[in-house]
Amino acid sequence: MPSVFLKTYGCQMNERDSEAVAAQLVAKGYALAPSEAVADVVLLNTCSVRDNAEQKAIDKMTNLAGQFRKQRPGVVLGFLGCMAQSRGKELIDQLPDVDLVVGTQKFHRVADYVDDLLAGRRDQVVDTDEERGSEATIKKHLLNGAAHGKAVSAFVSIMQGCNQYCTFCIVPYTRGQERSRTIPDIVAECRELVARGVREVMLLGQIVTSYGRRAERPAPSVDGQGPSTLDPRPSTSAFVQLIEAVHAIEGLERIRFTSPHPKGYGDDLVAAYGRLPKLVESAHLPVQSGSDRILKLMHRGYTRARYLDIITKLRAVRPEMGITTDIIVGFPGETEADFAETLSLVREVEFDNAFVFKYSPRRDTPAAAMPDQLPEEVIEARHAQLLATVNEIAERKNKACEGRMLEILVEGPSRKNPARLEGRTRTNKIVVFEGSDRHIGQVMNVRIVHAAPFTLYGDPAILNLN
Ligand code: 5AD
Question: Which ligand 1 atom minimizes the distance to the CA of 360?
């Protein structure tokens, strides 16, 4: 059978989509190629969130279409995902060697399209249509990742799209309107994962705090017959109801999710951390800016004070909470004073880590047309300054773990040094230690003996006692 090489750019949602595409291809009998050089089909699953992500995929494809394709004319080349969705056929006009362009609602069609192209039934395929129900098609898993054929942690896609329309963000245009899978469908997938050895699930969506908001809330079943998808408790959001349902799965150890939006971060979600022990003490909560003026221009729907209030509440419920965020520097019109507000928020919250992004104008977004786009040097300088602050705090927080005993879930061989194992603390910090294969998939306590800036090292002596 032909072999496929699939390269993924961007976020965890993209990784998950790629895994589902790969699982589909494998089910049809395709082999997964270890590199593009030996593959019969090369697919790039793309990201549009910033210009450099798009550029990377375009450069890669330009290379493939150049020398590579000339040597092996039969190779099928394709773009999938967000950039495919937003640019569509334009990509083929720019790079005529590309055979396949498949958008974000058609991942489940990729394997059939590849069949058609290889068999010569079609010359080119561009499919960026919307499809009702496509949010429920990302459900197949490979689960034979790095760790000796045994995946400990799995991504589960719970919804697609976003209706928030932040003025900088291309996602509503690439991922479409919010569409949620049902609770029973998601729970069934999680159950199957657990049956296959998974101990942790990461619930994924572009804006998980909006999960189920657009679904019709079914009336409670009067006759006690048909099970309602959502239980109509007004104080409990659909997202928290989903977490409760996943929490009830026996054998599952940990639940994570990403990304929530501060606007929808209700008290019920904060309280869920207090009462659901499998929901680990880890929150990724994108803030984007510390300035109310910029937050408003971004159309974020919350203030600095409201954001800080959520953080205070989370820490009241779980003092150990590991908190990470996303921040954009250089949004149009951002003044030194606005930037100073972001710096002060970062110092006040003391994030465990933060992704700091340079603002990148995206097509069709309101911010791209705003006056006062900042010069590159200003954005660079603010990026460097903020990153230095974030890193200094992150290192300090890591150092504070030295000497402590922490619970980790062992995921598999360390990515840095495969002779060792790595696991994650409940607060989402990576711990590298010496262990053996039998530890993979276990929840265990290790003593942290050393903290490097981004990694903790656990004590093997303690482990040997287990
Ligand atoms: N420019 C820079 N960063 C962006 N992000 C989203 N859109 C842009 C943009 N136009 C960042 C946000 C978001 C993360 C996934 O990417 O911080 O949370």
Answer: 1
